[in-house]
Amino acid sequence: MRPFVFESATNLRQASYLGLRSGQGETDAKVQFLAGGTTLLDLMKLGVLRPDRIVDLGPVHAGHDAIHLDANGLQLGAFAKMAAAAEHPGVLAHYPAIAQSLQLAASAQLRNMATLGGNVLQKTRCTYYRDPTWRECNKRNPGSGCAALKGFNRNHAILGVDESCIAQYPGDFAIALMALDAQVELSSASGSRRIPFATLHRAVAGQPHIENTLRSGELITSFIVPPGAWTRRSLYLKVRDRTSYEFAIASAAIALDMDAERVRTVRIGLGGMASRPWRATQAEELLTGQPLTEANAQAAATTALKDAITHGHNDFKPELARRTLVRALLQARSMRVADAEL
Amino acid sequence: MAISHLADLLGRPTTRIDGIAKVTGNAKFASDEAVADPAYAYLVTSAIAKGSIGSFDLRRAKAVPGVLDILTYANVGNQAKPAPGPDGKPSTTSLESSRIWHDGQIIAIVVADTYETAREAAHKVQVNYVAEGPSATFGSPGVKTEPHAAEEGADPKKGDAETAFAGAPVRFEGNYATPTQHHNPIELFSTTCVWDGPQLTIYEPTQFMWGTKASAATRLNIEPENVRAIARYVGGAFGSKGPNPRTAWVAIAAKRVGRPVKLVPTRDQGFTIATYRAETRHRVRLGASTSGKLLALSHEGWEVTSRPSGYNVAGVESTARMYACENIATAVHVVHADRNTPGYMRAPPETPYMFALESAMDELAYALRMDPIELRRVNDTQHDPVAGIPFSSRSLMQCFDQAAQRFGWSRRKPTPASMRDGEWLVGFGCATACYPTNIGPAAARVSLTPDGKANIGIAGHEIGTGAYTTVAIVAARALGLQLSDVTVQMGDSALPPLMIAGGSNNAASAAHVVAKACEEIRMRVSAAAVNAADSPFHGKNPFDLHLENRQVVGTGGAREPLNAALLRTGRRLEVYAENIPSGLPRSAMDELMKGKTVMSRGTGRKDVAAFAFGAHFVEVRVHEWTREIRVPRVVSAFAAGTIVNPVTARSQFMGGAIWGLSSALLEETEMDQGTARYVNTNLADYLVPVNADVPSIDIIMVPEQDERVNPLGIKGIGEIGIVGMNAAVANAVFHATGKRIRTLPIRAEKLL
């Protein structure tokens, strides 16, 4: 078999040190961190990722998997399993969009393995990326082109794409984090820093092989979701062909605070349609201060999708995306939100 | 006692005799068989769909420590005869030459000490292709269309459909399409080959033990007696597992490295190294009277196949026979593209062709403002409209009526898009299911010992259907034993042959030969008894005796313990029996032993047309905004003659119905049209239903006795469950939304 070095890090500092050469934002980094392994191992077997060195984070999990919430917000340890966050009573009651985005993701088996930190960094499902026998893939093979532009692209992105790559960001949890204005706590050998979650993933910008803004050896240690009147009236709507175990063909995360009939605050994350976790800020602005009518929701959806670019098989997506957003907004409006103290 | 009386003893619900072995992991599937010191093979498959291999650069691959051998056309190409396609005729090749016929074609096999080594080396095989522009499918430049070669005479035809259609008061015409689909059995397409001198043992999942044996012998040019194929359990087959191009290459690899070689291809390779259901197109025209009587029915089909093969399924053989009609015209065309050769996949002809006919019937019902069930009733018939001979039995309307009642069809509002539940549009749909009844020759060995234990040997196929249990039930009832007294050996070509587990024939084929062998045992025991002075049956008529509760039982209640009666024949009574179903020539058994497929087909008999029938009812829900489609409940009824075991029969029907839903809503092997390559070759992207997609599947087994179809009245049940379900779903989607979708699968984007 192809040899690689496998080493376990006993703590964060050591992990960061061992991973210093990780070049983590790059898809083909020669050093890869192993958390739940649900993406990494697949892609190694497929011959897409071929790291020389794997830094196993197993021993680090226990110290960074706590889920804590209080009046100051929600803190999710990056090594918490998807299943743990999906079933956490406090998350369910106060941040339903987060719980739903995780419940509706993957399968029970995967949710029991995968960590939250790994989840937000999961790779695209683009066939042309996942099968190395396709030569053209700027994400896997920079400069080679993009086979999906003229290939089969039903579930390729329509927002945030350019001619270099139309691969779709497949995750759900990240869409809820976008809508809830989350922050990420990062740790590296040189210390820790906190950045808005919205800046974790990079725009394609002609360089799809660099997917995020993590520095070499840097690890996600936790997600911080600020409190707000909108967190309890939040939801994640996922549209897909089958009922479970499928990536979204369109999804929306909504966090809403109403002042009687008018929108005081609305935050909109969009999934299953963009190159990275997407926030529809212009649509939010359009709705703020307005009654949340079907017509206003439609107008917001039109705005959110106005820059959509399609490539044939995914021509249906803008319309489906608009409908998904309208449905999610109307559903959020009619949500029953009981009072609950933290 | 003739064996037909046995039919009355069948049908008690029986759990699988191999169930515990399966759920505890003790059942050995082919790749579970332990062999000494195996080497591991990994396939290198083509990344282009058309062209040839200019050259290989194997240096990097060979340099991987542990690599033993790399097979390519250059070193083994002439060592095996080309494998025929599923129709026995020329097909695409693999290692025979440098030619590349299709995406994912096997072009090299790496053999190494470990699986991981073989895989890594396979990734390092460099191929310099001479690529040509491929033709992917219908409408692609460069495809070649021609009329198919009908296997059994001309395509069904009667009267003058053209004229009758033109003159019909109500006319409907529609075009339909079904997509490429793959079987995706959970057990992968593994092969392990072991040589012992001239003897070759093949552990490979197959639904035709003797076919796999014969095919390997032919391709390797060795004596069939020197080949043994073993697959005691098969983890799903659905038509995809049988004689195939891979086996001979693995055997050659094992010979070259002097060790057993084990190949377990990957899931994605399974999409191109095995067969598939080709995409089809249809044009259906129906002419009717204002009361709904069919005056003209024409059905024209187009099917994709590979360049060299004319393989096609020609489901017009069934659709032409569904309803009473005086004017019928059918035609089938094949479209050659740069693809691998398709093959059998559960109800190969009926799944696509009945989608077209049963969608069209529903459209006609709306055009006539008739209830779709009533349209079927008006056109129901007890005679095959093409051949004019009677159906051996046909309980189609009993199926419709019982299922309709259970389903609550009377709550249906006829107007499309008129029923809803909150944000969900609700629709009801129904369709006819059918499958011809086929039966093949078979042989079996049955032995009985005085302790009342029976052993049955037959090279049958446990592909998930419950075949071990079926055989055990027949033997236990025929010999008057408990099920626990019977052991069954199957899945080994060293046992007497059974026809391919295809065309839903195996239960009938196996049951009849086992019943025949058991009858021979009863006769010998009875003959010995009536000739013995110490027997209470001395001087009696042996035909009056039967076996029951480990006793020989005569008229008037006389009894003798089985052990006493049996000892007169020796300590072990063994019978070898062959059965050739009526209508087949004596040569059918020789053909079977040569691994050929030969069956009495439900559409090819002189005396009757033999079919099982059924009816599907489906409720669909379509979201008013986002248009995803859900199926909260299904009721399906089937009348399929004698049911040997209602427990496993229900599973067969239910599995078929679920696959039909899948075929309607989810499954499509997607292709990159420019390169003719499949792109969703994994189970995350090739969608099949999960449990949450099938919350309620209600199966009704309509009792049916049929003494004409075969002595035991057994019709096949393996395939009928899937047939027509795709149309029932499409019909329900139309009822829910008012949108008629004529191209499968039906996904949200088609309803936006």
Quick recap of the structure?
The complex is a heterodimer of chains A (342) and B (752). Chain A is an alpha+beta fold and 342 residues long.
Could you characterize the architecture of this molecule?
The complex is a heterodimer of chains A (342) and B (752). In chain A, helix 5 runs antiparallel to helix 9, helix 10 packs antiparallel against helix 11 and helix 11 crosses helix 12. The longest helix of chain A is centred in the last third of the chain and has 17 residues. Chain A is globular. In chain A, the strands form 3 sheets. In chain A, strands 4-5-8-6-7 form a 5-stranded antiparallel beta sheet. In chain A, strands 9-10-11-12 form a 4-stranded antiparallel beta sheet, with helices on both faces. Helices cover 26% and strands 20% of the residues of chain A. Chain A has 12 helices and 12 strands. Chain B is of the alpha+beta class and 752 residues long. Chain B has 18 helices and 29 strands. The interface between A and B is large, with 34 and 38 residues.
Strand order of the largest sheet of chain B: 3-5-1-12-9-10-11
Spans of chain A of at least 5 consecutive residues whose pLDDT stays below 50 are: none
- Provide a count of the helices of chain B: 18
Helix content of chain B: 10-25%
Please state the CA-atom Rg of chain B, rounded to the nearest Å. Answer: 27 Å
Helix content of chain A: 25-40%
Strand fraction of chain A: 15-25%
Number of strands of chain A: 12
Number of helices of chain A: 12
Strand-pairing-aware structural class of chain A = alpha+beta
Q: Which features would summarize this protein structure in a list?
A:
heterodimer, A: 342 residues, alpha+beta, 5-stranded antiparallel beta sheet, 4-stranded antiparallel beta sheet, 26% helix, B: 752 residues, 7-stranded mixed beta sheet, 5-stranded mixed beta sheet, 18 helices, 29 strands, 24% helix, globular
